[in-house]
Amino acid sequence: MMIDTADIVDLSIASLWEIAIKLKLGKLLFQGSYETIVSAIDSSDIFILPISFADTVQVRNLQLLRTQ
Q: Average pLDDT, stretch 20-31?
């Protein structure tokens, strides 16, 4: 399903964190100011999902893929 036709769109706060890191490292280009993202999110009715301690517990239980 495409975001523009979805009834509900969720965005993890972790994704925004990653975008900020990539911008800082110069690995991502963004036209405009990063700070304008929040107004775009608000005007698009996108729900930002928080990260809770329980989420971090679940991450500890994930099986990690090992690369050589």
A: 93
